Amino acid sequence: MKRRDFLKEAAVVAAGAAVTACGIKGFKSSEAAKAEADSLARADSIAAAEARKPRAYQALPGNRLSLSWEPYELQLRHTFAVSGSSRNSTPGVQVRISYDGFVGYGEASMPPYLGHSVKSVCAFLSKLRLGRFGDPFMLEDIMDYVNSCAVRSEDGNLSDGPARAAVDMALHDLFGKLLGQPLWRIYGLDPAKAPNTSYTIGMDTPEVMAEKTREVAGRFKVLKVKVGQPNDMQMIDAVRSASDLPIVVDANQGWTDRMKALYEIYELKDRGVQMVEQPMPASMPDDIAWLRERSPLPIFADEALQGMADLRRVKGVYDGVNIKLMKCGGLLEARRMQSYARAEGMKVMLGCMTETSCAVSAAAQISPGVDFADLDGNLLISNDPFTGVGVSGGKIILRNLPGLGLNIRK
Ligand code: MG
């Protein structure tokens, strides 16, 4: 019998006894009726309090975190070309953290330009001794330890972003699973405020780009085009010939002449472009600040921003920042950077690498409220081992599943 029913029945029995004691069959004395009402009210308030009680999870004595990992190769649906390189696959490392029968998943994705490799990620993970931790809820302490195993460079950023991000993600997934709640709910975010994600139309011939654009018609509300090539306007015109959706562009540091960059930005604005990511090399902050002062479109930092240490440097040079888990080392750091950028009046964009639904779903957990989201990395691969965050009509759909909201694809 449920506690509430038991208390109700006990109250009725008590009231009946009071009636018999009074010797008035069929009627209750006012005292007995009051006692019954009081008893029922007490039962209801106890039941209501119990229903409100959060499900508590205690770290279990003797249990320890256990870390494992496995490299894999992600196959791309289309050859992915950006200013300076192109590729058909991307290496990754899947990370798992186990505790009390639960498993949290994380992922390290390593685009070549960041200088990481499967070898460097595995070497970093091999250094970690997560078995020293018995309480998976001590996220800050655990990540402080993980970060202490990285090397801080002269510019203030920590090494091994993808490996640290993978561990951070797996911890957050585990954390949510132990609490039985999606991360976005734990953070108190409204999934209805999740943004549209842009979808990248990779560099190609104008005909192929127009075809790629037609392929995704109706599925997205913002398109992204990688520029920084001699034929930028041709590419934009090709996409424009197949769609009138807003476009954002990423030059990936491809423009080196600020006057030419400014001219291009005006041309892009005339073609319905809304913002420009990393127009010039990160090593040219003075030129970028000059460009920003004159640009009719907002300028966002990507390659110029790895971790928190860079936020101070990009302030005043860019209008906004592109935060990526693989650069900054995970959700804990990404949330700190988001708060700092907001406090400094900068716009915030969430980006990703070419990665599975694991890392994309992790970033999506903190997406409600950002200005731009570029979380399409999982849509660009053909062998995603997970299902996770969805996209409907271009909007990010956060799932009501614990942790990062992942299922392993059968
Ligand atoms: Mg970029």
Give me the CATH architecture of the largest domain, please. Alpha-Beta Barrel
Distinct ligands:
magnesium ion
The tally of domains stands at: 3
CA radius of gyration is 27 Å
Largest sheet: 8 strands, parallel
Number of strands: 15
> What is the helix/strand order?
HHEEEHHHHEHEHEHEHEHEHHEHEEEEE
* Strand proportion: 15-25%
Full CATH superfamily name of the largest domain: Enolase-like C-terminal domain
Helix tally equals 14
**Span between termini:** 40 Å
- Strand order, main sheet: write it out: 4-5-6-7-8-9-10-11
Fraction of residues in helix? 25-40%
CATH class category name of the largest domain? Alpha Beta
Kindly report the average pLDDT value: 89
The shape, in one word, is: globular
Structural class estimated from helices and strands:
alpha/beta
Question: What name does CATH use for the topology of the largest domain?
Answer: TIM Barrel
Unreliable parts:
1-28
